[in-house]
Amino acid sequence: MSDILVFKNLTKQFGKHKVLDNLSFHIPKGHVVGLVGPNGSGKSTIMKCILGIYPYEQGALYFEGQKITSKNVNRMSSRTGALIESPSIYPFLTGMQHFKLYSATKADVADVVNLMGMGKYINSKVTRYSFGVKQKLGIALALINKPDLVILDEPMNGLDLMATLDLRKIITSEAQRGITFIVSSHILSELEKISDDIILINNGKMFFQTTMPELRGLGQRSYILTTNDNKAAKNLLLQHGFVVADNGSSIQIDNSARQLNDFLTLLIENHIELLDISHQGMDLETATLSYIKGSREAVHND
Amino acid sequence: MIDLLKQEFFKLVHQKGILFSPLVLFGLMLFVGISSKNTGDLNYYITQSFAGGEWADVLLIIASANIVTMEFEHGTIKHMIAQHNNRFLIYFTKMIVVSAYCVVLHGFMFIFTIVVKYISYGSTHPFGAIYDNNQTVMQNLMTFLFSNLFSCLLIITIVFLIASLSRTSSIAAVVGLLFIFMGTPISNLLIHMVGNGSSIIKWNPGNMFNVAFQFLTPGTIHTSLLSDGELIIGNLIWAGLFIAIGYYAFKKKRI
Taking residues A275-286, what's their average pLDDT? Predict the structure, then answer.
């Protein structure tokens, strides 16, 4: 699948401070890409570079294979819809007037209002909207002019359970129609449910870019085993060359060499009763936390 | 640019403050008209558009401060830049829209002056009567309106500059009001203190606001120490400078 967007060694500075540092990644067309990182890691700056709000000092940005410069940035930004930091809305206008302001056609407005379930309050002033409804309007405005790329910064902010569920459905269905999404969120469990790919950045540098199946696969390299005698099981496995560690009330067995049958046979033949076995779960939150913690420790050790 | 202009006008006409500003202007002019009935030179009030110039300046300062800062306060500037990718065009379009609003306000001032004059003074003090500069009251009124309109160029450019440097519209409006209403008295004081007609001090921006008075009251030249032509050129140069600095501040404003 081709990439809609490619960052190549991009660097952005505010004064002497590097906000993005030699950043390279790619966004596959039609994918939902989760952008993850702690506050101040550079997520919003990445999004603002894509929208042409910030110029960058070094590196290159490609949109559908074409290099984007300050002269042709409109080629990219005109095909991008965005909700960044907070919804771009005027308090003196109604929801419907916002669509008129951005010259949306009646048919497109009807589609997006229906999609977002905003029919009831679309003709009310936005000052009467709750935070969640404002957020919905912001998302609707990002989708209104049929963009190829949609950037959503913390879109789940202020949304209740049902609205979050609706948003998840909308992103998934629009992505199936070929729209590419870049979504940043601190609600990692939610991001995990919608993302095809994950990009983790910290301090303006990229830690990794991976697909969700790959990320989940990282956790399948070890098993968590509970037996009627964990101590005996651990000693037995160690004697036979397995890599084993204590894991509270269970033991953790490295399975990178794929020896599941071997160690299960060994335990059963030695009359150790198996009570439970599972993969060690590697979710987005675990991965993010371990990488960020690792990075801080590395910095601390330096 | 056409799209931007359409969007700016759309936003302008949907703001209640802007929509009701002619009514506010009328109320204030009527108040001045009625309360001036028993004072001496009533033609003066008519030719001064019942202080409509000052009220219009205040409304213009508020509108100018708001049109720039609201985009940053509501975060809508991101959407504008993403859509148009040209900050100068955004800045300049806003200036055009406020200028158009200013022209409309002056049009209302003209109509309101006629209405308030008849409400307050009846058929006395006709517009055709000869008044200052051997011109009719109507001619004096028109001179006042056009000179006040011209002085708005400097007001708009200054307030846009202040708004580009400020965080909120209220700060921009207050600083703008102080600058515009205190600028001329402070300038007059400075010129008086220096007391040198050829001094560069007479070219200060505060002195440029005398353009609103000098066409109607030629004696103002003794205070401004600049001819009508020099005042016009000075206004244009300062306006150009304020646009350049204001745009630089707008461009560098952190989003």
Answer: 74
Chain A: give the shortest CA distance to residue B116, in Å.
Answer: 32
**Which range scores top for mean pLDDT: A55-59, A187-191, B156-160?**
B156-160
Instruction: Please give the order of strands across the beta sheet that includes A274-279.
Output: A244-247, A250-254, A222-227, A274-279
H-only helix segments in chain A? 43-50, 73-77, 95-101, 106-116, 131-143, 161-176, 188-194, 212-218, 230-239, 260-269, 284-301
On the question of pLDDT at B248 being above 90, the answer is yes
Nearest to A77 among B75, B82, B255 (CB): B82
B2–chain A nearest CA distance, Å = 12
Q: Check if the beta carbon of residue B150 is closer than 8 Å to that of residue B160.
A: no
Chain A residue whose CA is closest to B75:
A88
- Decide if the complex's ipTM is over 0.85: no
C-alpha span between A91 and A98 (Å, rounded): 10
Alpha-carbon distance A195 to A155, whole Å?
Answer: 14
Confidence band (pLDDT; 50, 70, 90) for A299? Answer: very low
The residue ranges of every structural domain in chain A are 3-203, 212-302
Give the DSSP letter of residue B195.
-
- With beta carbons under 8 A apart, name residues in chain A contacting B70: 90
Tokens read off for B203: 């070219």
Task: Identify the CATH number of the domain defined by range A212-302.
Answer: 3.30.70
Q: How far apart are CA B231 and CA B200, in angstroms?
A: 13
A6-49 residue pLDDT tens: 888 888 888 888 888 888 888 888 899 988 888 888 888 888 88
Contacts of A52 in chain B (CB under 8 A): 81-82, 85
Token pair for residue B82?
């993403």
Q: How far apart are CA A279 and CA A265, in angstroms?
A: 18
Q: What does the block give as tokens for B108?
A: 């209302």
Among the partner residues B11, B78, B85, nearest to A88 by beta-carbon distance = B78
DSSP annotation of B216 reads: T
Would the CB atoms of A88 and B81 count as touching at under 8 Å?
no
Domain A3-203: give its CATH code. Answer: 3.40.50.300
> Using CA atoms in the order A249, A251, A252, A257, what is the torsion angle rounded to 10 degrees?
-160
